[in-house]
Design a protein that fits this description.
With 544 residues, the chain is α/β, with parallel strands linked by helices. Helices cover 47% and strands 10% of the residues. Helix 8 packs parallel to helix 13 and helix 13 crosses helix 14. It binds glucose-6-phosphate (G6Q).
């Protein structure tokens, strides 16, 4: 299917119809029964690829379900859509752009064409400049205006220009340069900037202004505040060159701000914000973990790209996870997916995935502009285990909502301390087991529970989960994990026939906020609904 051609509506595909009737047969089948009937299910419904072991046996599926889901992928021309992305076709049709984050991690000798031009050499040129700069900052060769060593790096950015860098810094902290401080400022709430810089010395602080457009309100406001904060101590405008660098596609705005474009690291319009952590937007990550580790991260991304592009769907990790997500979202009416990493370093991974998944697939019209008559992107959320177990897991176990879960665990810890790691991992396995198989009334009674208490202590089970097991968290592994979810999102978007790469929904709020700002400055009195007008008046009273 060419992107602009009108596709057969999803619900008219024969695989979709077959899945609808298949759902009727399987919806009450218990995981307990599926496992009892097939002693090899646990080993059989698993894929081991690129050092990632995905156990998807605790899903409410049979071989027939899988067959139909793969048929759905074929009828949706998933293969063609994947090839179109890798070929640099403008699959982001509403912005008429190619979608080529895969080019950011392609090896030097690869060829990926956009409008007939190979983009890979430029990617590597920027990477080389980033590496040289990161090395200078890390080694102390890059000095501040007053010849002091840079000890603090503050990334200022928001959305795609923030969440990836924060997540990657936290995830790879073990590999980071420990004598440096890394902070991330995103919110236009002044508290974010104030707290991030409260204990920093401007003479030792480098700001990375990360903004694709270099016009984003929050980022530019924080960037100007950072400039004032620096100049207050450093005095001299010339100091800006030593304490500010930019990551952007907009050279004109960068130099207007006062940053020498020699200190600018570029990227391209075919890199979506939420797919940009492996572009120059990752500069803070590179300074934190070093160029070598950053390249390992890219190599991990690339391995997953190749796997997604070439592995048969039956063994293809992102395709499997994407199709399972469609299965619950569209047939079981599951509203959300919980991502539960059992690794403290991945504490920002669910927040990162929220943008990746929800900004990509939160769409209500198809590529041809028709309103969908099925559900699209589910809500992604999560927290690291075991913490979540002591708060929201209750609802997953005994609530009335079906919440498919992704557990992520590691064979080895980066911080071996007594038996902590076995205790952590025992909980991963226990949670998956409890969700799938629950505890019957008979089992509860057999424990001597009084009859009145039995219903409260029953776990129905039949709650699905994936479990991802990996040896140890490394930069390569992080790259593979992020790419796994990126391509799972792609798979889902292809099935739903939506543009996973635009974000028009973000725009309206921005425009309305701009209007209200002029009102708050007292320049005009705007016309709003009675609620908004009253709220603005109340705010004015409160602010005094
Ligand atoms: C991501 C979105 C959005 C974007 C931010 C920051 O896909 O486009 O989150 O990254 O709005 O934009 P700038 O990088 O242009 O400041």
């Amino acid at each position: 299917m060419a992107t602009t051609e009108k596709a057969v509506p999803l619900t008219q595909l024969s695989a979709w119809k077959a899945l609808t009737s298949h759902y009727g047969q399987i919806k009450d089948v218990q995981l307990r029964t599926l496992f009892a009937d097939d002693s090899g299910r646990g080993e059989r419904l698993a894929v081991d690829a690129l050092g990632i072991y995905l156990d998807y046996s605790k899903n409410r599926i049979t071989d027939e379900t899988l067959k139909l889901l793969f048929k759905l992928a074929d009828e949706s021309d998933l293969r063609g859509r994947i090839d179109a992305m890798f070929r640099g076709e403008k699959i982001n049709i509403t912005e008429n752009r190619a979608v080529l984050h895969v080019a950011l991690r392609a090896p030097k000798d690869a060829t990926i064409l956009v409008d007939g031009k190979n983009v890979v050499p430029e990617v590597h040129e920027v990477l080389d400049r980033m590496s040289a700069f990161a090395d200078r900052v890390r080694s102390g060769a890059w000095l501040g205006h007053t010849s002091k060593r840079i000890k603090n790096v503050v990334n200022i950015g928001i959305g795609g220009s923030d969440l990836g860098p924060v997540m990657a810094y936290e995830a790879l902290r073990h590999y980071s340069q420990r004598d440096m401080v890394f902070r991330f400022v995103s919110n236009v709430d002044g508290t974010d900037f104030a707290e991030a810089t409260i204990d920093l010395d401007p003479e030792e602080t480098l700001f990375i202004i990360s903004s694709k457009t270099f016009t984003t309100l929050e980022t530019m406001t924080n960037a100007h505040t950072a400039r004032e904060w620096s100049l207050k101590k450093l005095g001299d405008e010339k100091a800006i060159a030593k304490h500010f660098v930019a990551v952007s596609t907009n050279a004109a705005e960068v130099s207007k701000f006062g940053i020498d474009t020699a200190n600018m690291f570029g990227f391209w319009d075919w890199v979506g914000g939420r797919y940009s952590m492996d572009s120059a937007i990752g500069l803070s990550t590179m300074i934190a973990v070093g160029p070598e580790n950053f390249r390992k991260l890219l190599a991990g991304f690339h391995e997953m790209d190749e796997h997604f592009r070439t592995a048969p769907f039956e063994k293809n990790l992102p395709v499997l996870m994407g199709l399972l997500s469609v299965w619950y979202n569209d047939f079981f009416d599951a509203q959300t997916v919980a991502v539960l990493p059992y690794d403290q370093y991945l504490k920002r991974f669910p927040a990162y995935l929220q943008q990746l998944t929800m900004e990509s697939n939160g769409k209500h019209v198809t590529l041809s502009g028709d309103h969908v008559d099925y559900e699209t992107g589910p809500i992604f959320w999560g927290e690291p285990g075991t913490n979540g177990q002591h708060s929201f897991y209750q609802l997953i176990h005994q609530g009335t909502k079906l919440i498919p879960c992704d557990f992520i665990g590691f064979g080895k810890t980066l911080n071996p301390l007594g038996d902590h790691h076995d205790l952590l991992m025992a909980n991963v396995f226990a949670q998956g087991e409890a969700l799938a198989f629950g505890k019957t009334a008979e089992q509860v009674k057999a424990e001597g529970t009084p009859n009145w208490l039995v219903p409260h202590r029953v776990f129905e089970g039949n709650r699905p989960s994936n479990t991802i097991l990996i040896e140890i968290l490394t930069p390569e592994v992080l790259g593979k994990l992020v790419a796994l979810y990126e391509h799972s999102v792609f798979t889902q978007g292809a099935i739903w026939q939506i543009d996973s790469f635009d974000q028009w929904g973000v725009e309206l709020g921005k425009v309305l906020a701009k209007n209200i700002i002029t009102e708050l400055e007292g320049k005009i009195v705007g016309k709003h609904d009675s609620s908004t007008s009253t709220l603005i008046d109340e705010y004015k009273k409160l602010r005094g």
